[in-house]
Structure formats: structure tokens, C-alpha cells
Amino acid sequence: MIVDSVQTIFSMKFQSAPGSIGQVREAATQLLFTAKGHNVPTFLVGHVTKEGSLAGPKALEHVVDTVL
Description:
The chain has helices at 21-37, 59-63, and strands at 2-4, 43-45. By secondary structure, the chain is an alpha+beta fold. The longest helix is centred in the middle third of the chain and has 17 residues, at 21-37.
């Protein structure tokens, strides 16, 4: 499964906007549980800034296995 971009996914559990810390963490966590539960390789694509660092909350970095 390829998700492009994880910052645009949202959950109705939170009132915050897509891309917020809570939304990104919840989306990544739910995708992680689903992928591992069904043994499906998953790539989460996130935005980067012009400087090359991840855009938005750093919560995504702590949920995934690898950041490239």
C-alpha cells in the first residue's frame, strides 16, 4: 500500500485539521496496525521542506520503521 501524502489523511476522532500532530499520529498508527495485521508492506509518503527536513509534526518519524 502506498499513501501519498499522510499529512492529508484525517480521522473523525479529532476536530483538528489534516496535517496536525494528532491527525498525523492517528493516521500513521491506524495504517501501521492495518498493514502489520494483514502483512501488507506499506509506504507512507510525507512532504519535505525546501531544506530537506520533514514538513509538519515530527510525530510521523516516531511511528514508522524507517525515514528515507
